[in-house]
Amino acid sequence: MRKLTGALAFAAVLATTAVGFAAEPKPAFELPPLPYAANALEPVIDAKTMEIHHGKHHQAYVTGLNKAIAADKALEGKSLEELLAKAGTLPAAVRNNAGGHWNHSQFWKSMKAPGTGGKPADALAKAIETKFGSIDEFKQKFQTAGVGRFGSGWVWLIVTPGGELEITSTPNQDNPLMDVAEVKGAPILGNDLWEHAYYLKYQNRRADYLSAWWDLVDWAEVSKRFDAAKSAAN
Ligand code: MN
Q1: How far is the CA of 112 from the centre of ligand 1 (A)?
Q2: Separation of 101 CA from ligand 1 center, angstroms?
Q3: How many A from CA of 54 to the centre of ligand 1?
Q4: CA 108–ligand 1 middle distance (angstroms)
Q5: Cα(40) to centroid of ligand 1, in Å?
Q6: CA of 9 to the centre of ligand 1 (A)
Q7: C-alpha 176 – ligand 1 centre gap (Å)
Q8: How far apart are CA 197 and CA 208, in angstroms?
Q9: 28 C-alpha to center of ligand 1: Å?
Q10: Tens-place pLDDT, residues 77-133
Q11: CA 195 to ligand 1 center in whole angstroms
Q12: For an engineered disulfide with 149, which of 12, 153, 167, 181 has Cβ 3.0 to 4.6 Å away?
């Protein structure tokens, strides 16, 4: 027994040493954990969709981004925001995966259990009413923009550099922080229009998913982003 323990201890020392020598550099980006259980958004979004969406799709963007960065010394140490700001000049693998990582990281935090997300705070509510007429009209316009996006992409509520609210949509994993975006600004709320976000439960019915999704929106979080974007804009 003593002999075995000694052998194990020796093996452990070897293993530690080997790990020490072979240590890979820490990947530039990591998959953030979901801020709630995979089933927390049911019945609006089912647990299986969340598990695949976060654990497979979002993970793939993080893995792809780390791989693209490891292949290009010039990109080492750049923040996600720095990469997005010059996405148009970078390889497609960086643009797509950096966008995918940023978009999903914000998306998870935009949602919470059905019916618990409250309402927009006063400043945001007022800005929405001024720009779109009412919260309901805003929601309709946001949904229309989401339905109107051909293929995959995102629909956004942004604060423009001039401090205005705007609804916009981007293709693929682009977002309004990118130099290539038609309408640029700070995204404060985005919904994922890729079929992987809703297909298991809603199949082809993107419009039904878009209208059911409001029940999940964490308005305290969105209002916080609005305040931050407004003070950055002004
Ligand atoms: Mn997605």
Answers
A1: 17
A2: 9
A3: 8
A4: 10
A5: 17
A6: 46
A7: 16
A8: 13
A9: 21
A10: 999 999 999 999 999 999 999 999 999 999 999 999 999 999 999 999 999 999 999
A11: 8
A12: 153
State pLDDT tens for residues 1-17.
Answer: 444 444 444 444 444 44
Cα-to-centroid distance, 147 and ligand 1 (Å)? 16
Structure tokens at 147: 């339905």
What is the CA(15)–ligand 1 centre distance, in A? 39
DSSP 90-154: S-HHHHHHHHHHHHHHHHHHTB-STT-S----HHHHHHHHHHHSSHHHHHHHHHHHHHHS-SSEE
The amino acid occupying position 109 is K
Tokens matching residue 52: 């695949």
Q: Tell me, in angstroms, the distance from the centre of ligand 1 to residue 168's CA.
A: 17
Token pair 């935090």 is found at 109
Taking Cα atoms as reference points, which of 51, 35, 202 lies closest to residue 110?
35
